[in-house]
Write a structure and sequence with these properties.
Length: about 150
């Protein structure tokens, strides 16, 4: 997949993403609310990149100049697509993730027959909650995580 928006490309991962993936996911702030710890080595990033290259669930987000800035993950589970996302902290508060999520959900609706998306977000991750609400996701449940649906 390769989508172009006003400011971004959302595309399949490539081998050349290795160092940018490592740089982004080795940061404490970026990984604070994720289910994994920041990468400690380039080898760890290579292992994760290999997974992203094989599975069509992970999509790299780049600026139009091709600079890697984050990722979106989509996986079909029963009748919904689960969506997860992260953005390099250098690019927070620019509307990039909002733009990427709109593009990806529209693509999946138009090309994959998707009609329902779900996201599980740590309740302390206010920025992610705001992004989801901005693009139309609705909070349906709250425990340790907040469950959103579109």
């Amino acid at each position: 997949m390769k989508l172009k928006t006003k400011n971004l490309y959302v595309r399949d991962y490539m081998e050349s993403d290795l160092y940018n993936l490592f740089f982004c996911m080795s940061k404490e702030d970026v990984c604070r609310y994720l289910s994994f710890k920041p990468y400690k080595s380039i080898e760890e990033a290579q292992k994760e990149l290999n997974i992203r290259l094989k599975e069509s669930k992970y999509y790299a987000i780049t600026l139009l100049n091709k600079k890697y800035i984050g990722e979106i993950y989509l996986s079909k589970d029963d009748d919904a697509y689960e969506i997860r996302f992260l953005l390099d902290d250098l690019y927070w508060k620019n509307g990039y993730m909002t733009e990427a999520i709109v593009a990806v959900t529209n693509y999946f609706i138009e090309n994959k027959g998707a009609y329902k998306f779900i996201a599980y977000v740590n309740k302390n991750n206010i920025a992610a909650c705001n992004v989801l609400e901005r693009v139309g996701f609705v909070k349906i449940k709250e425990t340790n995580d907040i469950v959103y649906e579109l």
